[in-house]
Amino acid sequence: MTREEDEITRVRKLVVVFDICSSTTILHDLKSTDNLAEWRNLLIGMKNGLLHEGGKLEMELYKFIGDGWVLLFPEDVNRDTLCTFLSVISMAFDAQFERSVSPLLQSRLSPCGLMFGIDSGELIRLEMNDQFEYIGRAINVAARLQSATKELPHGPSYKALFSKNSLNSLQSPRPSKKFKQAEVNLRNIVPPEIDCFLFETYKNVQRESASFV
């Protein structure tokens, strides 16, 4: 347990906060047909996938937030490798969702997928209730960026918003991933207007085509 007289422990991390689109609607739908076990199994599968893929990048599976996670990476993780990780997680989620959850839903779901926010910077680490906790602006900004994906054109599905700061911190001599510049307004962040970059982690072409039928 960290005490007031202990020296402050500072660490620098790249923070990824992600959430599942329309999770409240999904839960309500599955609950009405007694199929919540499939949602539980989906989350367990996601956790296992995160640990498997993230272990290659020295990822720390920091916190489960009900329908998503807060992930911590070394600040100098390779840009393309991180983006590939986000795409792999997105594709795995989409495949499992289409296979086990989508057939059980009573109505068409929109939006569907994962939404990500990424920032980097200094965090303070402390121990509470026998586990490490982190506090810092980077977690707050990443969470707000994740929420801001809901305001993007064409919705938040499989969209990742990188702060300019986080993108600059990533190692990548010759980056191959494509980003689009964007500007968003973040609640309770100073300054509220922040330059960021959009990366699309995955596209389900079949679903997008169906939505226009």
What does it look like?
It is a single chain. Mean pLDDT is 89; it is low at 209-213. Helix 2 runs antiparallel to helix 3. The longest helix is centred in the middle third of the chain and has 23 residues, at 79-101. With 213 residues, this protein is α+β, with helices and mostly antiparallel strands. It has helices at residues 23-32, 36-54, 79-101, 137-148, 164-169, 205-210, and strands spanning 9-20, 60-64, 68-74, 114-128, 131-135, 159-163, 180-185, 193-200. Strands 1, 2, 3, 4, 5, 6, 7 and 8 form an eight-stranded mixed sheet that branches. It has one domain: 2-Layer Sandwich (Alpha-Beta Plaits), CATH 3.30.70. It has six helices and eight strands; from the N terminus they run βααββαββαβαββα. Helix content is 36%, strand content 30%.
Keywords:
213 residues, alpha+beta, Alpha-Beta Plaits, 8-stranded mixed beta sheet, 36% helix, 30% strand, globular
Question: Secondary-structure map with pairings?
Answer:
Elements: E1 9-20, H1 23-32, H2 36-54, E2 60-64, E3 68-74, H3 79-101, E4 114-128, E5 131-135, H4 137-148, E6 159-163, H5 164-169, E7 180-185, E8 193-200, H6 205-210
Parallel strand pairs: 4-6
Antiparallel strand pairs: 1-3, 1-4, 2-3, 4-5, 6-8, 7-8
Helix pairs in contact: 2-3
Please state the CA-atom Rg, rounded to the nearest Å: 18 Å
User: What's the total count of β strands?
Assistant: 8
- CATH level-4 homologous superfamily: Nucleotide cyclase, GGDEF domain
Shape: globular
How far apart lie the N and C ends? 57 Å
Structural class: alpha+beta
- In the residues, how many domains can be counted? 1
CATH architecture: 2-Layer Sandwich
Low-confidence stretches: 209-213
CATH topology grouping: Alpha-Beta Plaits
CATH class category label: Alpha Beta
Largest sheet: 8 strands, mixed
Helix share bin: 25-40%
Mean pLDDT: 89
Please tally the helical runs, counting DSSP H or I stretches of 4 or more residues.
6
